[in-house]
């Protein structure tokens, strides 16, 4: 069976690089019209990369933690593509930096919680009316293995934010199921070829982690994009409120 998303409009937050870009490219390759949201980085270059391979994509700069900017972005997406968003991937997020709790500031706390959790809540809120009107929609939220094990040193607040994404998604799934909207979570483990581990993980830490992965390798962005594609398609129509772990067996529930 070939996954065909022709006619669907997909929004990927934090879509200019890393996992977000790979997810955007994969959705576009299967026919979706893709809105690449970005705040930092080069969203226009990401959208152009997708167009160069035959996809339909446009970049939309907006702060995914700012409800007013989110609402403006959704209006712009609807104007550009001629309809409402069918698929949203709430990928915007990040560790920001490692901060031990004894050194935690209120500013850092809010920065981490806002980008990882608040963005998920308010981007979801903004696309729900359009999905409800169609009686169909796919909301895909991005958590992390850290949500289960607390993360590495200085990542406790980040881990808590990702755990909140999982809990919130279950409640949202129940709320939106009568309107034909599926809400699910992807939870990546150790995914290489991204700026996250290049910034926050030492080579020794990377090798030690890989040694504990039953499948014997670190993940790559395409591993995450493949699961995202499944959740965006009709193949996942009877799946909601679930969290799919993408970690090569490093963590099993």
Protein architecture, described:
The protein is of the alpha/beta class. It has helices at residues 18-29, 43-52, 67-81, 106-134, 146-149, 156-176, 195-200, 203-211, 221-232, and strands at residues 9-12, 33-38, 56-61, 87-90, 137-142, 181-188, 243-246. It has a seven-stranded parallel beta sheet with strand order 3-2-1-4-5-6-7, with helices on both faces. Strand 2, helix 2 (43-52) and strand 3 (56-61) form a beta-alpha-beta unit. The mean pLDDT is 95.
Descriptors for this entry?
Rossmann fold, seven-stranded parallel β-sheet, 253 residues, single chain, 47% helix, alpha/beta
What is the count of DSSP helices, taking H or I runs of 4+ residues? 9
User: Which structural class should the secondary elements be placed in?
Assistant: alpha/beta
Q: Look at the structure and give the mean pLDDT.
A: 95
The CATH H-level superfamily is: NAD(P)-binding Rossmann-like Domain
CATH class: Alpha Beta
What letter string, H or E per element, gives the SSE order?
A: EHEHEHEHEHHEHHHE
Helix content: 40-55%
Q: Give the termini distance in whole angstroms.
A: 29 Å
Shape field: globular
Cα-atom radius of gyration: 17 Å
Extended strand count: 7
- Count of the domains: 1
Which runs of at least 5 residues are low in confidence (pLDDT < 50)?
none
Sheet with most strands: strand arrangement? 3-2-1-4-5-6-7
Let me know the largest β-sheet.
7 strands, parallel
CATH topology name, in short, is Rossmann fold
Beta fraction: 15-25%
CATH architecture: 3-Layer(aba) Sandwich
